Amino acid sequence: MLTLQSGPVNALGSALRQGILAAVEAAEADPAITAIVLIGGGRMFSAGADITEFGKPQTGIGLPDLLNRIEAASKPVVAAIHGNALGGGLETALACHYRVAVPSAKVGLPEVKLGILPGAGGTQRLPRVVGPRKALEVIVGGSPIGAKAAAAMGLIDELAPEDGLRAHAVAFAERVVAEGRPLLKIRDRDDKIAEGRENPGLFAAFRDENARKTRGFEAPEACIACIEAACRLPFDEGLAFERAEFQTLVSGTQSAAQRYVFFAERQTAKIPDVPDDTPARPIARVGVIGAGTMGGGISMNFLNAGIPVTIVETKREALDRGLKTIRTNYENTAKKGRLKPEDVETRMGLLTDTLEIEALAECDLIIEAVFEDMGIKKEIFSKLDTLAKPGAILASNTSYLDIDAIAAMTSRPADVIGMHFFSPANVMRLLEVVRGERTAKDVIATAMQIGRKIGKISVLVGVCHGFVGNRMLAQRQREANRLILEGVTPWDVDRVIYEFGLPMGPFTMSDLAGLDIGWSRETNRSESVRDLLCEQDRRGQKTGAGFYDYDAKRKATPSTVTEEIIATVAERQGVTRRDATDQEILERCLYPMVNEGAKILEEGKAIRASDIDIVWINGYGWPVYRGGPMFWADTIGLPKVLERLRAYQAEYGDDFAPSALLERLAVEGKGFKDL
Ligand code: TC6
Fold it and tell me: Which residues contact 588 (CB under 8 A, 6 or more apart)?
């Protein structure tokens, strides 16, 4: 019985690999041993290769060689899996001759999410067990699958009772020995990969189906090429092909970015002055004020996690509309098969609707999600102060207003915090937790934890206009607006941003959100492009036209009306029209964001540069393979960013004035990563 034991997740670092090699060799040499069971100590079998070792020189035997050695063992090796067998962990199991697992175990090859591929034989062995089609799903998709599903596809040989894995695995191994069963080496199988040779079109079809999801990423294509190679080449040649592809990926920028993001996500939970063991307040019932798009989405998060919600509106009609939207969302999910029909009712059953704000008296956490009007927010918080029970957390979902000013309306500012969800709130993973001047530590700990419980990535930020995300976005928006007055078309700005890897550019985004947010005919001054578009009822996708024209299927086409409006405004403002290269468009939209991020760090409004990156990846769709704006700036080199900011400053003024932090780091030859 060989027990893997290394850190919290049995990552297959150098010491563990050496240990396994020595133990397998000793077991082979010992005539008293007839079979080997490989099992994980602690919470799981193994989470795979030690990610911190990538990019460093290898010490001792590498994982691919170790796995070939295990496969070549002269005695049967049985993997006994509980918890997770991921990446190199599953590849280890695939090198064993047999696999047993408890039903709750999860197996998968998530390497693609780190910008690499299963480079220890995974792309060659998995297709030989489950066939190329399923291998594509598992390897390019990267999501783990349950042991039962894995058993159904032949990846697991036998399921063991939940609490009897050890005994079951030993009995299994004894049976293999007693029956004289052969050592099943996956490398020798070729029945399942025949499909890949007979129907090579399946790879092209898979590429097409997944083009949208994999846009811009290098690893998915390399994974597909390796699975194709598995079907085409003898095993050892396939392994060599996989090795070469792995080396290219692991030494590239995308993988460095994606590995950085893996650790950055885990860092967000660490708050220097709020230790991990800070006791959180119990949250048994949540109140949500406002049943609009945000309030409804926010409520769904808690209902999904089984936490009862009381939702309040001022008018019956608005409340009914909000409830109907929530129900429709659930029903649509059920129609797609992603939710059991009975769960629709269970979730709706956890929701209490009311027109009486007093009904929130029993809630442990109350989240205000009304529109962005400081007067109304202040009124609500002073009311909450009188009615909420002692110890209740009072949160605002504001996306830019001053949390301290809101907290000042209560006699309990320590209980007040910002919880800024991103739209659609039931889908987007980001939660900006906004710490006020006087917010209590246990309130911060609770907001961070409840965020994780409802499946969000919580990032702690400080009070400033727009917090981290929207504050940086405003920089991009300003430059995008300036660029179109200078003569760059909105379509070119959008194209450059899209090609960079963001899901959409600023003008597509404005059209989607609606151009009339905060605009009204009465107060309109007919000054900006937006004013004039709105005046012509071009208010975005919802009115069939905004910057773009939209057809019935909401497909966008560039509009000459918009181009004329832009030319009019430019003339009125005396802006000189000129051309700009794609590179200039990119720099002028994104470098000021990086600069603003540096100011945010200087002011202590974010704990670390990687928190800013996590905000941008999860709140705005910044391409994960570029690691977030701050990581991206590091890959360009801060001296270069500084030089360009100074050049634009000379031309366009102090909107581009470099922050002191950026200047200092650039001069010292450092990056944000060194902070
Ligand atoms: C691979 O296998 C390639 C093979 C080819 C080679 C040729 N390495 O996530 P948690 C740390 S690539 C190093 O909080 P959970 C993690 O940072 C790998 N460290 O736990 C954290 O450290 P902290 C493919 C790792 O229970 C601590 O362990 N595998 C690794 O919420 C606890 O982690 C994957 O991509 C690692 N592989 O979730 C799986 N994994 O305490 C990556 C974790 O200092 N891992 N750490 O912050 C996971 O997805 C999750 O950790 C989990 C457990 C689902 C296994």
Answer: 479, 482, 483, 580, 648
Predicted complex ipTM exceeds 0.90: yes
List the one residue out of 96, 82, 92, 104 whose CA is nearest residue 173: 96
Q: Are residues 165 and 304 in the same domain?
A: no
String of DSSP letters for 344-393: HHHHHHTEEEES-GGGGGG-SEEEE---S-HHHHHHHHHHHHHHSPTT-E
Q: Examine residue 267 and state whether it is found in any structural domain, yes or no.
A: no
113 and 234 assigned to the same domain: yes
Condensed to tens digits (0 to 9), the pLDDT of residues 605-652 reads 999 999 999 999 999 999 999 999 999 999 999 999 999 999 999 999
Name residues whose C-beta falls within 8 Å of residue 24's C-beta, 6 or more positions apart in sequence: 2, 36, 69, 70, 73, 77
Order of strands, sheet of 106-108, starting from the edge strand that comes earlier in the sequence: 84-86, 106-108, 145-146
Amino acid type, 498: Y
In this structure, the answer to whether residues 557 and 628 fall within a common structural domain is: no
Classify residue 588: in a domain, yes or no: yes
Amino acid residing at 423: S
**Domain that includes residue 627, residue range:** 582-604+607-674
- Does 518 have pLDDT greater than 80? no
Minimum CA distance residue for ligand 1 atom 17: 263
Residues with CB under 6 A from ligand 1: 8-9, 11, 47-52, 63-64, 84, 86-88, 110-111, 114, 118-120, 263, 266
Residues 120 and 243 in one domain: yes
Q: Are residues 563 and 620 in the same domain?
A: no
**Whether residues 368 and 445 fall in one domain:** yes
Q: Are residues 339 and 190 in the same domain?
A: no
Which CA distances in Å does 51 have to 77, 84, 263, 284, 373?
A: 26, 16, 9, 37, 46
CATH number, domain with residue 516: 1.10.1040.10
Over residues 299-343, the pLDDT tens digits come to: 999 999 999 999 999 999 999 999 999 999 999 999 999 999 999
Atom index in ligand 1 nearest the CA of residue 267 equals: 47
Q: Can you tell me whether residue 285 is helix, strand or coil?
A: coil
Q: Quick check: is 557 in a domain? A: yes
In a domain, 496, yes or no: no
Q: Look up residue 666 and give its two tokens.
A: 């650039």
Distance CA 418, CA 443 (A): 10
What CA–CA distance (Å, rounded) separates 36 from 527?
A: 77
Does residue 523 surpass a pLDDT of 90? no
Domain ends where: 411, 439, 465? Answer: 465
Which ligand 1 atom minimizes the distance to the CA of 86? 29
Residues 52, 186, single domain; the answer is yes
